Amino acid sequence: VGGSSVLPCPLKQSIIMVTWKIIPKTGAPCTLGYRLDTNTTNRTTCSENMNWKSRPDLDASLEMWHVGIAQEGNYTCEVVTADGNFDKKYYLTVLVPPRPSLYCDDHGSPVCEAAAGKPAARVWWLLESNSTPEKEGHDNGTVTVLSRFTACSTNVMNATCMVFHPTGNWSQSIPC
């Protein structure tokens, strides 16, 4: 989320037309089109954060900036040539890094939280614990994972939480 992405569209010899068809999981579909015979481009309902990477007759790649969850979905590049039609399909998945935190609750127990990540983060305790992570899904597709440390022995001085996610890992210790 927030980064940029380029989806390549392999060009063939003697192109006539190139079209990007975008069907996001949420929102309206959009298209970007290019016709060689008139050297014109056309766009319908596409957001301003996406466009051709360069001239479509030289490089038909689609470039997106400030990618958000709304851009997640199906992307198809169709190339029409004298030899036939060719397409390249993509499914864009947007990763959202969770916001990790570690704190002591009102009972003095450590609580580890990985808020609003996509996909859901994995939360682990360094020492053995009887805790089971709780997951809460949000309307935007992100998930918050919360885990309360329940020690198997009473000799625990510090609890260390580890959060694992495709966007990066995190760990922190806390005495409660």
Automatic annotation (TrEMBL):
Record domain Immunoglobulin V-set: where: 2-94
Bilayer disposition of the protein: Single-pass membrane protein
- What does UniProt give as GO cellular component? external side of plasma membrane
Biological process per Gene Ontology, one example term? regulation of neuroinflammatory response
Q: Which UniProt keywords apply?
A: Disulfide bond, Glycoprotein, Membrane, Transmembrane, Transmembrane helix
Q: Which InterPro entries match?
A: CD200R, Ig-like_dom_sf, Ig-like_fold, Ig_V-set
Q: Where in the cell is it found?
A: Membrane
Q: Which domain of life is it from?
A: Eukaryota
MF terms per GO, please? Answer: signaling receptor activity
Primary place of residence? membrane
PANTHER family hit by this protein: CELL SURFACE GLYCOPROTEIN CD200 RECEPTOR 2, CELL SURFACE GLYCOPROTEIN OX2 RECEPTOR PRECURSOR
Mind telling me what this protein is named? MOR1B protein
Q: What is the lineage of its organism?
A: Eukaryota, Metazoa, Chordata, Craniata, Vertebrata
